[in-house]
Amino acid sequence: MIADVDILAGTLARMGAAARAMPPSWASDGDTLLACGPGGERIGDIFPGEGLALGVDLASLGITRPIPNVFERSAVLRLGDRVRRLATRLLGDERGAIATYDGIIAGRAGGLDDDVMFFKNSYASASLAWSSSFRGAGMPTVGTYTAIPTGAALTRTNVGALNLGMLDPTGGNSKYLLSLGWTSAANVNMCLLVDLLVGCGSISANVATAQTVSSAALTRYTTGVGVQATFEITTALGATPANISFSYTNQAGTSGQTSSSQAMSPSGIVQRLQPSLQVPLVPLGSGDTGIRAVASVTLSAAMGSGVIALNLYKPLVMVPGVAASVFIAPDLATQIDGLKQLTVDGGGVLGCLALFVLPNSTTTGDTGGFLKTVAG
To answer: What are phi and psi of 102, to 5 degrees?
Structure first.
């Protein structure tokens, strides 16, 4: 039963706008991520650069008008599904040995289950502005960044990874995320589970010339397709306005590309993501669908103070928020194509999972949850 159609329509509109603003990696490479509803149910797919593809028609939800960037379950969408499945066959599928629900049951019954819990203390935020829980206190503890130049590739071994205690898959198995359960003491509009690929710390916000980053090589999603960039504030910013841009190598291996120039948040607080847009990323150059490496970062003016860290990341699951203290646990295996494989690096080590949060107030609230997985 839908409690408030207007609220639902607004949430879908925000998710659609966020999907539209992402690099267009669906059209070029068939890249998608999951979209889950407030009850934890799968509601469709995010097509980066295009919009939100629902699994139902809007009329079945009580919505009588079209929503920009939100596509209904229509003949056009079914055609898009077929194109996506074809792209998956051509480009590779993240699903591995587990292809049926029975495989999940057998894996967990056979001792290949692996569930971890996490808890992050409430921290100050800005309403309707994205922030990162990676450096939030709690369990796991505060995440760490390696300074530029180079920074470092991140894995689950980083002290801030949500999956810090998770076991790496062995014996030729792959590991799959079955559920992300979480609750917050505050009203959260949306959260995004991401795989943090590379972190580059100690970028000064008080320098108006290009700073060499030379980001570490990707160890997962190495083609760069769908890899996005944002900046976490690690020391509060000064009050002087400035724009930020960066030089990067795109998914095709072309270096010297330049991102758009976006406004920073004067006096921005720690853990807030920059720039402050409807999605936590810096828009790339025209036609680019991802990033392999960042060469340098440039601010248009010295902000007076502040330090930021570059995050290169791959979005995994987007979940709209619910009222404070409501627990949700999306079941990604309800539809088998919803299984999300957790990638490993060349040494078989899992990636570094983190939550990006879009709060509805000036605090995120104490947040707790679990990650439920299976190997096979």
So the answer is: -60, -35
Instruction: State the DSSP string of 19-60.
Output: HHHS--HHHHH---EEEE-TTS-EEEEEETTTEEEESS-GGG
Which of 22-26, 118-122, 159-163, 353-357 shows the lowest mean pLDDT across its residues? 22-26
| CB-CB contact of 60 with 73 (8 Å) | no
Cα–Cα distance measured from residue 78 to residue 96, given in angstroms and rounded to the nearest whole number: 24
DSSP 326-349: --B--BTTSSGGG-EEEPB-TTSP
CA distances, 270 to each of 128, 154, 252, 265 (Å):
15, 20, 34, 11
- 12 near 70, Cβ under 8 Å? yes
SS (H, E, C) 71-98: ECCCHHHHHHHHHHHHHHHHHCCCCCCC
- Beta 146-147 vs 188-204: how paired, if at all? parallel
pLDDT digit string, tens, across residues 206-226 = 999 999 999 999 999 999 999
Other Cβ atoms less than 10 A from the Cβ of 337: the count is 16
pTM: 0.80
